[in-house]
Structures are given as structure tokens and as C-alpha cells.
């Protein structure tokens, strides 16, 4: 859920209807969304490769003690 967009929609709806509680909720949601967006780590490409037809790539997702394998084939 995009908190910024949802907050702005609620803020506009509350202002249009004269509902200060809804406008306040919208302003709070938008503020939280902006803070979360500005403090999150930037996305970083870890690995890139073009697969040829018939080639496969195995990705292991580690979560605790157990690992899960994902197969990707072209």
C-alpha cells in the first residue's frame, strides 16, 4: 500500500467533506509515508545476467536454518 497516495486521498476527502478527523488521518498517513520513503535503503542491483535459451539459473533464498531453491529457466 502506498501510504503517501492513500494519505493524500484521505486528506483531500476530509477537507472536501469538512471532516477534520479524516483530514488529520490523511495528513498523518502521508507524513509517515514520506518519512518511510526517505529513510529506506536505496535499491541495489546485486546480480545481472542474460540467459540463453535453455539455460537456467538457481536462486537460493535463505530464511533461518532452511533454504528454499527457486529455478529460473529461459
Short structural summary:
The chain is of the alpha+beta class and 74 residues long. Helix content is 47%, strand content 22%.
Give the SSE layout.
Blueprint lengths: L2 H15 L2 H20 L16 E8 L2 E8 L1
Antiparallel strand pairs: 1-2
Helix pairs in contact: 1-2
Main beta-sheet annotation: 2 strands, antiparallel
Percent helix among the residues?
Answer: 40-55%
N-to-C span: 32 Å
Sketch the topology as an H/E string, one letter per element: HHEE
Please report the number of helical segments: 2
Rg calc: 21 Å
| Strand order, sheet with most strands | 1-2
Shape: elongated
Average pLDDT, all residues: 86
Which range does the strand content fall in? 15-25%
Low-pLDDT parts are: none
How many E strands? 2
Structural class: alpha+beta
Describe the structure in your own words.
- With 74 residues, this protein is of the alpha+beta class.
- The protein has a domain at 3-39.
- It has helices at residues 3-17, 20-39, and strands spanning 56-63, 66-73.
- β1 (56-63) and β2 form a beta hairpin.
- The model has no long low-confidence stretch (mean pLDDT 86).
Task: Tag the structure with descriptive keywords.
74 residues, two-stranded antiparallel ribbon
Amino acid at each position: 500500500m502506498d501510504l503517501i497516495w492513500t494519505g493524500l486521498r484521505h486528506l483531500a476527502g476530509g477537507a472536501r467533506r469538512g471532516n477534520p478527523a479524516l483530514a488529520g488521518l490523511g495528513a498523518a498517513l502521508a507524513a509517515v509515508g514520506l518519512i518511510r520513503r526517505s529513510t529506506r535503503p536505496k535499491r541495489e542491483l546485486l546480480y545481472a545476467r542474460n540467459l540463453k535459451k535453455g539455460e537456467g539459473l538457481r536462486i537460493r533464498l535463505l530464511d533461518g536454518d532452511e533454504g528454499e531453491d527457486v529455478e529460473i529457466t529461459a
